[in-house]
Design goal:
It is a single chain. By secondary structure, the protein is mostly beta strands. The chain folds into two domains: 176 residues, Jelly Rolls, CATH 2.60.120.10; 128 residues, Jelly Rolls (Sandwich), CATH 2.60.120. Helices cover 3% and strands 35% of the residues. The protein has three helices and 28 strands. The chain has an eight-stranded antiparallel sheet with strand order 16-20-12-9-14-7-6-28. Strands 5-25-24-27-22-21-15 form a seven-stranded antiparallel sheet, with no helix packed on it. A four-stranded antiparallel sheet has the order 1-19-3-2, with no helix packed on it. It is globular, with a radius of gyration of 22 Å.
Length: 389
């Protein structure tokens, strides 16, 4: 959640009558979080928003099941997955997602959509965060549209109706479904909720929905809701996008990873200084081009470390990854807790004297162990762990 927005036509006070020019009553919808204790948005519809009939759910991705046989414990090892070798599922974004790694807090996947969604979707299981590795398009919602492009993060809050219209170019997106909320780290805000002046981004860096009260009926009536890992279908009697105004703090937004303001220290700083989003059991960090440490004897390469409480996931997007060999754009590394990890042989010494890095990557540290789906295991680089010897 970012900050409060008010767009379109809303009454002077919530829960009071709003009428159109003909005197017809508008219908209020409250989208709330944490029951009624958390952030919320109030929307005003031209028609009753809660009249959808039951229908079949013909869309949805395969929800991951445990890949391990009962009682089978997978060998603890550093792992590398070549996501670029994954066979694209294609189709609409709602059908194209391929889950790869997961735990009780997050489900990480990739998708290569090549068609627009022909239904509206609401994820009732969590907030969705996308990193657009390749491609772009438009996120269409009753709150307005959000245009997105390569290198964007795209946040779709839980319960927000939406559909994607990808552009004609090749698409490759990283997806992270967060089961218990996603937001900006609390330490970046002051007492009134404003982003602090020393935060790594500002309110101006986030792109909010572009709203128009004169929304055209797109003819789509089908709605799919995901809840409890299952997909449920509904059919609305009228246009889904009939909102004339709204206000609140729950809405989708985009953020270009290249607008993240990195911090640089006298010596190498821990990855928490790259924190970008926080969720229950997970911290997402952005690695962007930046100057390196400026102590004359600094070792810029990350030091070997044993993060005994976190699994480390990295999606490599672009640039030179000096601490790793054999990874490139689209690669995924997974270094589980309990295994010390660090740079490949030669990278530690070779980093001496380096003054800048141009890598672009997304890192996720998770408190719970990540498990791999069968689709993920099929693209594993089996020689990766031994490459550190």
């Amino acid at each position: 959640m970012l900050d409060r927005m008010t767009v379109g036509t809303v009454p002077d006070k919530p829960h009071t009558a709003l009428r159109d020019a003909a005197g017809d009553l508008r219908h209020e919808e409250c989208l709330t979080r944490e029951g009624f204790d958390g952030p919320f948005t109030i929307l005003y519809h031209a028609h009753r928003p809660h009249t959808a009939a039951l229908a079949d759910a013909a869309h949805g991705w395969e929800v991951p099941l445990p890949a391990d046989a009962e009682g089978d414990v997978r060998r603890l090892a550093r792992r590398h997955y070549r996501a670029s070798e994954l066979e694209p599922r294609g189709g609409a974004p709602l059908d194209a997602r391929v889950p790869l790694l997961y735990n009780d807090d997050v489900v990480i996947g990739v998708l290569h959509p090549d068609a627009p969604d022909d239904v509206y979707f609401s994820n009732g299981d969590g907030d969705d965060l996308y990193f657009i590795h390749e491609g772009g398009g438009t996120l269409v919602t009753p709150l307005g549209d959000v245009a997105f492009a390569a290198n964007d993060y795209l946040v779709v809050p839980k319960g927000v109706l939406h559909r994607f219209v990808p552009s004609a170019e090749r698409q490759q997106w990283l997806s992270i479904e967060c089961a218990a909320g996603l937001g900006l780290p609390r330490q970046y805000r002051n007492d009134v909720g404003q982003l602090r002046m020393d935060a790594p981004y500002t309110h101006r860096d986030f792109r909010r929905p572009m709203f128009s009260a004169a929304l055209e009926d797109d003819g789509l009536r089908d709605v799919v809701v995901k809840r409890g890992g299952a997909f449920h279908g509904f059919r609305a009697p009228r246009a889904v996008r009939d909102v004339v105004g709204w206000d609140g703090t729950v809405y989708p937004f985009a953020f270009d990873i290249r607008r993240f303001q990195p911090r640089v220290g006298l010596v190498h700083l821990p990855p928490t200084v790259h924190a970008t989003f926080a969720a229950r059991g997970a911290l997402l960090c952005s690695f962007v081009p930046r100057p390196l440490d400026f102590h004359p004897d600094a070792i810029p390469c990350p030091y070997p470390h044993a993060s005994v409480d976190c699994d480390e996931f990295i999606f490599y997007a672009a640039g030179d990854f000096t601490s790793r060999r054999g990874v490139g754009p689209g690669s995924i590394s997974h270094h589980p807790a309990g295994v010390m990890h660090g740079p490949h042989p030669g990278a530690y010494e070779g980093s001496l004297g380096a003054r800048a890095t141009n890598e672009l990557a997304v890192m996720l540290d998770t408190a719970r162990p990540l498990r791999a789906t069968q689709a993920c295991r099929a693209i594993e680089d089996a020689a990766y762990h031994a490459s550190f010897a």
